[in-house]
């Protein structure tokens, strides 16, 4: 498979199930991974924001990644979240990582520091030069307070063969269109917002790294697959069917919403690590109602 096709379609920003004792529930995680794969998702994203990796110790992250690799067992590509606001720390981590079973890395723009665009270019070039697997950029200014401009993305795409895609979660469609208009052949744009995936794909995006796909993997995968074939008449109804649930899971933050929804579906226990907290009872009931509508449509 060509490098630029590794991460086309629906990737799942995998949640981490916890037990009430605050330990990782590996049994539920294995069940969830099997369900996602059997439902048609295209790849797994490990240790991203949705996984709550920021609340884990180094040893927990190592154990979690190894378990995901073993559970996936080569059935799908795995993208590893590997970013930070200290370039040297990220490159040191890359140097010390065993990439067996890992198909690529997802690297977020440095947060808190608010680097200039030339600093972003230096940061990602350092990562791309060292990484033994393809690199996917991740632009999410709502979390990082740092927007990577279209010009910066395009420069990195042109100058770094190992940078194969960007997960664009700026919500700025004009910026997305500029990247899509000018990008080099083989460089992919991936939606980082579930609710914007359909419109971005009509403009040329190649898929999504999805949160809602944890709970609705078949519906999201079908929508993306139809859109990638240009069959928008089939994709659009699925987009609108999922849209209320897509929006609702983010009302009180991620991954609080998706974990509540997965508990409603009976797949995990709704446990989050501090400083994150469970969603309100009002939102929980709303998610239950919206999920029942999805289930009703399937019957």
Structural notes for this entry:
- Strands 1-2-3-4-5-6-7-8 form an 8-stranded parallel beta barrel, surrounded by 6 helices.
- The chain is globular, with a radius of gyration of 18 Å.
- β4, α4 and β5 form a beta-alpha-beta unit.
- The mean pLDDT is 96.
- α10 packs antiparallel against α12.
- By secondary structure, it is α/β, with parallel strands linked by helices.
- The termini are far apart.
- Helix content is 46%, strand content 12%.
- The protein contains 12 helices and 8 strands.
- It has one domain: Aldolase class I (TIM Barrel, Alpha-Beta Barrel), CATH 3.20.20.70.
Please supply descriptive tags for the structure shown above.
TIM Barrel, globular, 299 residues, alpha/beta, 8 strands
Largest sheet: 8 strands, parallel, barrel
Count of β-strands: 8
CATH architecture annotation: Alpha-Beta Barrel
| Beta content | 5-15%
Strand line-up in the sheet with most strands: 1-2-3-4-5-6-7-8
Shape: globular
The level 1 CATH classification is Alpha Beta
CATH topology call: TIM Barrel
Give the domain tally: 1
N-to-C terminal Cα separation, in Å? 36 Å
| Helical fraction | 40-55%
The named CATH superfamily: Aldolase class I
Number of helices: 12
Overall average pLDDT:
96
Write the layout of secondary structure elements.
Layout: E1 9-13, H1 26-38, E2 43-46, H2 58-72, E3 78-81, H3 87-96, E4 104-108, H4 117-130, E5 135-139, H5 141-144, H6 150-159, E6 163-168, H7 173-182, E7 188-191, H8 197-203, E8 207-210, H9 217-228, H10 232-248, H11 256-264, H12 281-298
Parallel strand pairs: 1-2, 1-8, 2-3, 3-4, 4-5, 5-6, 6-7, 7-8
Helix pairs in contact: 1-2, 3-4, 4-6, 6-7, 8-9, 9-10, 10-12, 11-12
